[in-house]
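User: quick one
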Amino acid sequence: MGMNENLSKPLDRLSAELAGDMDQVNALIRERMASRHAPRIPEVTAHLVEAGGKRLRPLLVLAAARLCGYSGANHVLLAAAVEFIHTATLLHDDVVDESRQRRGRPTANLLWDNKTSVLVGDYLFARSFQLMADTDSMRVMRILANASATIAEGEVLQLTAAQDISTSEETYIQIVRGKTAALFSAATEAGSVIAGADEAVQRALFDYGDALGIAFQIVDDLLDYGGMSSTIGKNIGDDFRERKLTLPVIKAIAAAGPDERAFWERTIGHGRQDEGDLETALSLLKRHDALKAARADAIDWAARAKAALGPAPDHPLRAILSDLADYVVSRIS
Amino acid sequence: MGMNENLSKPLDRLSAELAGDMDQVNALIRERMASRHAPRIPEVTAHLVEAGGKRLRPLLVLAAARLCGYSGANHVLLAAAVEFIHTATLLHDDVVDESRQRRGRPTANLLWDNKTSVLVGDYLFARSFQLMADTDSMRVMRILANASATIAEGEVLQLTAAQDISTSEETYIQIVRGKTAALFSAATEAGSVIAGADEAVQRALFDYGDALGIAFQIVDDLLDYGGMSSTIGKNIGDDFRERKLTLPVIKAIAAAGPDERAFWERTIGHGRQDEGDLETALSLLKRHDALKAARADAIDWAARAKAALGPAPDHPLRAILSDLADYVVSRIS
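Assistant: Done. Structure below.
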């Protein structure tokens, strides 16, 4: 991801602030990822746990709960449940995208097979609902069931919107809400609900998670085209090869003349891609300032995330969450 | 399935008895299977709804609730939730088994693709938890979350036990509990819970569903080898070709001499199958009375299902549920 050392601080500060809670979450994840009867399940889940990851979503649950003054133990259950939903969707996404690598390691569908990824994903999804049931909060259950439906809906929408060069920015945001923002906003909202926060604060934390998630995904999609520089430490062009209509491409298509439109139709619409096409795509994105415009949108969503925190209680975590929104877009500065 | 007309009566009686409730369940299923944002979802789910099916699992929910004197409306939500879980697992199973047909129609993974089946399955699973949240019963939520975990666990266990000719009858029952009985027993138990039945009755209905589900699956596995006759209206040998260790084969392997063991090792263990091997397998099953022995087990489980109903309230539905257990095994008489 090539983080700017200076700006990685908000996530580090969040992790440090919540280290005690997070240790409990990690222990619970390890405990509940096991299976009494099917030995393959712990093999696969251990592979996923070892891969690490930033644990951003459980941190958002914990932060929202603590920010709202929570002092119980249910936020740990909830954080683990959210991470299980996230992990289940990663397993299924890798099957859907036929991915071979994630976080620099071979994917489960490559190491085992698609069947295993589908079924272990289902297992983790069921385990997440068991964890939620343990919180004894029906509101939380409803929030995460709704988020799960939105996630699946967004993924199906992405499947049908892929390859369709008439996809609008509105549809793109809908897809992004599903694939990323729904779980961010469910994490922050549920954290506040479990803490018994009042309606306005619940709404504030939902809006924060929603805007943060959208900013996060726009940045991810920008990085897939190299971000703002051409020397980012990530393979570029995966979305182009998979013919995904992401924000930079949607903006470039909107500004395209007939020849350029024919290029997008051929490469993304019909999937006929030759050597040099990615370079052409990058030059078109540059010509129409599509990366710059997408970056401006990401920065705008990050600003909305920060503004949403207005009604949230005065607490050290509030400043960290605010800085986290800046940090998310700093990856493309 | 080639039902014996005379013995199909218990299921017909159950449907007739619960017709009013079932109309509501079907309406709710149609309503909740839709999607506001992703048009492909209703296409796929309509394909599944039109395929019909016996709706046995929602009928079990309704029957258990009514048997226990329930007069509210939550049993309809619960029955739809159970059918959604069932449909989601069928979608994922067909991906895992690479199936091309179900109920005489092409599968969703064939008509669309594996990606669509995985994601629409996830969507239905999320929708089922939304329905459960609407019942406002955390006990019911927990029962179905547990069942969902057991189902996924059973499927993974089946994946790893397939091709392993040392699979025991105990492991087989574990797999069957996961893939079939867990949702039957969750349906009947949750129906009784929602009706506020006392502990002994809840337990009775759990045990009934568990034993009924095991009998049901043993019968299904028998029918895959032609049942007790050789002229059943179903393609036989699918499980043999997929190298599944089902009860008849496990029994035949237990009785096998060295040559026969080598045959099973080659065909199921290593998957090297030639023309005539299915016929050989059938003759070995016959030689060791493996089909007869499996049938005796199915009848035994049906008897246990009937006996389990002991503590259940005196009600016309009780006799129908008891007859249903006989009906399930009548398919192989």
